[in-house]
Amino acid sequence: MAGDGCMSQVPTQGAIRRRQSEVLCQIRERRTMSPVKNVPRLLATRGATRTVRKFLCRREYSRAFQCASLARIGQRYAEGSLQPFHCSSCSGLSLDVGGWNGRNLPLCERCSDREEPPEESVAAVGEKKIHLPQLQPPAEADIQRLSQSRGIDSVALREAAKRGLWCCFDDQRNGRCWLFTDQRRKCGIRRRLDNKPFYLRDGTKRKAAACAGSDMRTPLGYLEAEKYSYLGIVEGPPNGLAVLAHALAAGVMELVAPIVMPCSNSNFTAQSLQVLRGKRARIYLDDDKSGKEAANRWATQLQGADVTVDGFAFDGLGQTVTGKPIADLNDLLVIAPEDYKNNRATIGRLMDFAIETRGQWVA
Fold this sequence. Notes:
Number of domains: 3
Helix content: 25-40%
Strand order of the largest sheet: 3-4-5-8
Number of strands: 12
CATH topology of the largest domain: Dna Topoisomerase Vi A Subunit, Chain: A, domain 2
CATH architecture of the largest domain: 3-Layer(aba) Sandwich
Strand content: 5-15%
Oligomer: single chain
CATH class of the largest domain: Alpha Beta
Distance between the termini: 49 Å
Number of helices: 13
Mean pLDDT: 78
């Protein structure tokens, strides 16, 4: 509205360039910086913060990085890609989610890693880059350790490793760990082999931690499942491994492939549905509200790709040997003996879809 003095205006490209020049002049005036030619051009390119860092001492790098990021944020504001978000570490409100370790586990500038400056925004560069640890094939000791901590048969774990669904790595804070991923290498979810909480760099702990840059929105394992006729769809990596353990017990492991949704907010993409078209699937619902809502959404998506799908719920199946209520497929591997005896017929139907030809989803 004309005359409204409080209206904000989108900065023009000229204004952004002038502000960038001012920032660059401030950086060049720092005494600790060695003379360099074409600094404005260097800062305007991808990886510019790494170039600046070569010519600044460690103390001055942080300030120069902040100045350079101001120019970058101004550019993204003009592009319309600037948006507010809550930092996944300190929970503080910040801006520019695309520029700080991805949209799934965003970090504010204060919490982001100065050793590895944040990647450029999705709008500026395109695909995000995932930061994976140094991965190794699981050794026999790793397999036995994970089998003991999660109650998953070692034969099923070897099969999952053979399909490329999990690897191991060493972590300074957490010791020997395992990571669930697939051949696309777009998402990696880390856990400790001993099943204890995973410690992050800031001292917080979680039961699992996605690698920086992981795409938590899309399913894992769908390319590996292309040659299999039957799909066990679950949320979370331990349940993905449990799919193969239950399939092994039912004698159909060679027929079934796990599809792992990284979280309840994940969805099937057009590409994944194209690969899975026409198959037979069963969704193993996590026994909570978000898990059931997600399962209904996934079923609708799968049905649109001509996938025959039904579901299996865990409510009323009793407790684990530690007294925890059975809530998912992995819990069912460590069910208390008395509860297994009382629910043996129901549990025996876990994998019967792999020898059936029809099924129906019931919401």
